[in-house]
Design goal:
The chain has no helices and eleven strands. With about 150 residues, the chain is mainly beta.
């Protein structure tokens, strides 16, 4: 029996009473529930995931996420970044910062603060008990603005 192929058991029972008998067959389906709570991939929309995704690593850095996507940034610009977590087993549940997300779908972190922003990814196995936690620190770059001091002669 594998996680995807259930085991089928048949049980035949014959009941006799006062010379009469009745036979019934019952089928019992046994399915193995997965304890897999791992990711098969992890991707970011901005910056670079560091180190590259590896099954044995659970802590990552996403940097540098630009201060602004604008060619002419302003001090009050906001920034967002997305994280896409894909589970090894399709029957798992994924949450990012306590929000349930579909495996393989992007979760967007809006209004990133300048410097470190934490994304906590919890993968819960089909058994509902086994969990693995991944952390991605999304680092928004510090702005650099031209002061307008003019030309230097």
């Amino acid at each position: 029996m594998t996680e995807k192929t259930p085991l089928l058991l048949s049980l035949t029972a014959t009941i006799s009473k006062n010379g009469e008998s009745d036979t019934k067959t019952f089928t019992l389906t046994v399915k193995k529930i997965s304890k897999s709570a791992t990711l098969s991939s992890l991707a970011v929309s901005k910056g670079i995931l560091q180190p590259d995704f590896n099954l044995s690593i659970t802590t990552y850095l996403d940097a540098p996420v630009p201060f602004s996507d604008s060619a002419t940034p302003a001090y009050n610009d906001t920034q967002s970044a997305s994280i896409t977590a894909t589970a090894t087993n399709s029957a798992t549940t994924i949450t990012i910062n306590s929000n349930t997300v579909t495996s393989g779908s992007a979760y967007t972190m809006n209004n990133l603060a300048v410097a470190a922003n934490t994304a906590t990814i919890v993968v819960t196995a089909e058994d509902g008990v086994t969990k693995e936690t991944y952390t991605v620190t999304v680092y928004r770059a510090i702005p650099v603005f031209k002061t307008g001091a003019g030309a230097i002669s």
